[in-house]
Amino acid sequence: MTTRHSNYTSWGRILHAPHHASRPASTETAASSVTAPTEATMLGHGLGRSYGDVALNPGGRLIDCRSLDRFIAFDRATGVLTCEAGVTLADILAVICKPDPDGSGWMLPVTPGSRFVTVAGAIANDVHGKNHHLHGTFGRHVREFDLVRSDGARLVCSPTENAELFHATIGGLGLTGLILRATIQLRRVPGLAVEAEDIRFDTLGDFFRLAGESDATWEYTAAWIDCLAGGKSLGRGIFSRARPAPGIAAAPPPRAPRLSFPIKPPMPLTNTHTVRAFNALYWRKLGIATTHTRSVGPYEKVFYPLDAIGHWNRAYGPAGFYQFQNVVPLAHAEAAMREMLQVITASGQGSMLSVLKMFGDPLSPGLMSFPMPGATLALDFPNRGQPTLGLLSRLEAITVAAGGRLYPAKDGVMTAATFRQGYPEIDRFARSIDPRFASSFARRVDLRAASGI
Amino acid sequence: MQAPSPARKTIAIFGATSDIAVAVARLYAEAKWSIVLIGRNEAALAGTRADLLVRGAPEVVVQTADFVNLPALGQVADTACDALGGLDVAFLAYGTLPDQAACEADAALAEAALVINFTSPVLLLGELARRFTSQAAAGRIGTLAAISSVAGDRGRMSNHIYGAAKGGLQRYLQGLRHRLHATGIAVIDIRPGFVSTKMTAHVKQGGPLWATPDQVAKDITNAIAVRGGVLYTPWFWRGVMLIIRAVPSFVFHRTKL
Description:
Shape of chain B: globular
CATH topology of chain B: Rossmann fold
Strand content of chain A: 15-25%
Structural class of chain B: alpha/beta
Radius of gyration of chain B: 18 Å
CATH topology of the largest domain in chain A: Alpha-Beta Plaits
Order of helices and strands of chain B: EHEHEHEHHEHEEEHEHH
Largest interface: A-B, 14 and 13 residues
CATH class of the largest domain in chain A: Alpha Beta
Helix content of chain A: 10-25%
Mean pLDDT of chain B: 93
CATH architecture of the largest domain in chain A: 2-Layer Sandwich
Shape of chain A: globular
Distance between the termini of chain B: 35 Å
Largest sheet of chain B: 7 strands, parallel
Oligomer: heterodimer
Helix content of chain B: 40-55%
Mean pLDDT of chain A: 92
Number of strands of chain B: 9
């Protein structure tokens, strides 16, 4: 096994750390690198789209899985796909999700806001998308996967075989071992194009009303919130909803971003003025007098608006940015969201892109899965040091008080107490952690293997 | 890449487990070509085969061969040509990047590097040329393509065993192109610059000169489609090497290139 001393960075560009990285070319070499007799802890790594520190293991080993990119089998009749851990969702879309002559086709059952993530990363973070209210998390559509552990065991994990490891690995943040390959169930859609609507709304209450009436018949829903609007306009925004357009074909989006952010600017391009301008413009994106638009076309713009520009995270400058995403149970959702928006407005630290969505009932098989029925708010803040950390800490406190939790894939700051309170299965999960796997996140929230395994 | 014609198109890839070869094979699979994969590692070839079938190749045949076994190369060429009933393209992608200092210290290492990077591809191309010529007489005008390197363009202190082998291969391809011109068979000399692959994994990488196998693969399939003669990939290497070749010795000898 050859390892290189390499720098890896979180997507939020706050953590840059040297790692002993290896990039196995096959699942066999990956398996043997997991059992290599070294003292250092290890962690699997994919495309590095996690914003915080879940995908990094500073000072330790990183097994870079990007070369495990082979498809293994696809059954066109049933939509069951088997592939290696490092296959990307962009690759699945490009290779598999091509329309039949009648426009219908196989589609990813769940996709996050970026298609540049790996299958194993999607499982480890149990990612969700705009269709959570109907189809739940990515992990719900995983039939089985191969997991290799540091003791040399290579295990097939499914709901019926090694079931405990199956449930622990979905949303298990890569700590239960290394996923080598996975089998997922794709979803048949009557048209690969989508019918999409944007609806402007004036208050937070309107959001909950729109979500309530849309979620049964619209597969994909989410809202952009103007987080700089206070007072009577607090919580105003644009509600986006979409669903497959029967009989209408759409070609897959490109496998690489159309444009790339080519440089690392020495200062953030996202400052108070640009955030203000962006939010003000976005509020008017439907036009001055229009409050409702409808279109039918490819899903790229609906699902992956940020994927159009590669390395967009560089725009936040050398200090990077924090993401924040929480979920608050239904009973406290509206009050907690209102309080958070008030805190953000008062802080003057606008978020460039604030997204509000309702999660639904479908349960994830993952013990540590993030979503639960309720409202979820995603925010990003340029890193301005103490004021930003202070704001994040207030938002965290509001979440905890409302019985909610934060999303590890986006988090850079939560305390061990917040994590423990939010994830009641933590002790059961800890029993499945591989003692030689670790991450920066796991150390921060004091998540370690329970003794006796 | 150009749209494939409705008739079955076939390509044989020699050294099919290299990163550039896999990237090229995937593009042909998506264009619905049938593919023969030739290499040493049967398990890796089987994995690539499954991948290419999912990606759209109608048929993929796996063939094991050791390219340093020179007397067997005629048989290797025969088997590959017959696997799918004739070939439209033969693509040679194997080679190693030897350590220059080690080659200077040990003639056996230098010899091994010359065999895998020069002697073997030259002999295999010779075998393929004969079969492609008889195919051409029957109306199937194919293409022979091989990866040389920008390192073959000028001898340098840091890698002239590799450079000599690749430079020799360039000359052979040039002569073969001349010889086969009348038959219509295209002979393509692919000269990549720095590419991030398993072969270069031990070299410090990064910066604008380094390309990915996917970028290089697109250039290769385009060059094969237009039957171009010499391909520098990425494109800027043509200019870079023009300058490197033109630098006078009294300047060049002061560098550590």
